[in-house]
Write a structure and sequence with these properties.
Layout: H1 2-14, E1 23-30, E2 33-40, E3 51-55, H2 67-76, E4 79-83, E5 86-87, E6 94-95, H3 110-125, E7 132-137, H4 139-150, E8 158-161, H5 167-172, E9 181-186, H6 210-220, E10 225-231, E11 239-245, E12 259-264, H7 278-287
Parallel strand pairs: 3-4, 3-7, 7-8, 8-9, 9-12
Antiparallel strand pairs: 1-2, 2-4, 5-6, 10-11, 11-12
Length: 291
């Protein structure tokens, strides 16, 4: 019996940190705090394997989040990281510090953590030496806008789902340069309102209208024209795709930094998966910028 226990211990000690083809929980330390994340690695993962970091919304949970993205990662062969946000100081909900009123006094720098996480994953698992992408929903979408404003070259492309540009971000920073960016947003979203919330009636803080938020990214990317097309929808909502084109490259030698807005007419606060294949649309956008 004792020899079996010893053999089991020895076997566990030589197992790899992450098993290809499985989603596993890991923990890293950042600024004195333990930060858990779940990671899916495709078979034969290596330096050329792309990475998508996916941020949940306020009060959300990383484990098992958006299983459609995990299935897509297995199909398309990219690594998927689901980091867990930590709890706010005033409410017992996990999330990302984007300076909501309920986060007043919170010093945690989650943008610095996401930047660290990208480097940590590349170094520890030998992936995404060139191709890393960021996606986030709602509170995670706000993180996407902050990243696009402050560190547009950190990720090859960024996708926000029902995200917002907070008024404080617009006042304190200007978008620093071209960045491939897309936003999916319902016009009937009652949580992250399409027309903005200049008076903080919703309690999330002041934020600007979604078309203006995307327009600011397009302006920073020096886009020169816009096209509008209706894309097929699986239900009654009309989905209008606004593409801002003729933009500058995000960096020397890269493709032009296209900016997109998917306007889901009548859509609510969601991934709009009942309207179209949002996850595939995100990945198809990202893969345009693979090196």
């Amino acid at each position: 019996m004792r020899s079996k226990i010893i053999c089991t211990i020895l076997l566990l000690s030589i197992l790899p940190a992450a098993l290809p083809g499985q989603t596993q929980r890991h923990v890293t330390k950042f600024q004195g705090e333990e930060r858990p994340y779940w990671l899916y690695l495709p078979e034969n993962a290596g330096p050329e394997t792309p990475l998508v970091i996916l941020l949940h919304g306020h009060g959300g949970k990383a484990e098992g989040y958006r299983p459609e993205m995990a299935a897509l990662a297995a199909k398309e062969g990219f690594a998927l990281c689901l980091p867990q946000g930590l709890k706010d100081s005033k409410v017992d909900k996990s999330g990302w510090n984007v300076r909501y009123p309920v986060q007043e006094g919170l010093k945690r720098d989650d943008i610095a953590f996401v930047r660290y996480l990208r480097r940590h994953l590349s170094k520890k698992f030998g992936i995404a030496e060139k191709n890393a992408f960021l996606c986030g929903m709602s509170n995670g979408g706000e993180m996407c806008y902050i990243m696009a404003y402050r560190y547009p070259r950190e990720f090859k492309a960024i996708a926000s789902i029902a995200g917002l540009t907070m008024q404080w971000l617009r006042k304190e920073y200007r978008p620093e340069g071209p960045v491939p960016f897309m936003e999916v947003h319902g016009t009937a979203d009652r949580t992250s309102m399409w027309k903005g919330d200049p008076t903080n009636s919703g309690g999330w803080g002041e934020y600007i209208a979604v078309p203006l938020a995307v327009g600011a990214i397009a302006t920073a990317s020096r886009c020169t024209y816009e096209t509008c097309d209706t894309i097929p929808s699986k239900r009654d909502h009309t989905v209008i795709l606004h593409r801002f084109l003729g933009c500058d490259p995000a960096a020397k030698g890269r493709s032009a930094a296209e900016v997109r807005l998917y306007e889901v007419q009548g859509g609510g606060h969601s991934w709009a998966l009942k309207d179209f294949d949002t996850c595939q649309e995100v990945w198809d956008f990202f893969r345009t910028y693979l090196e």
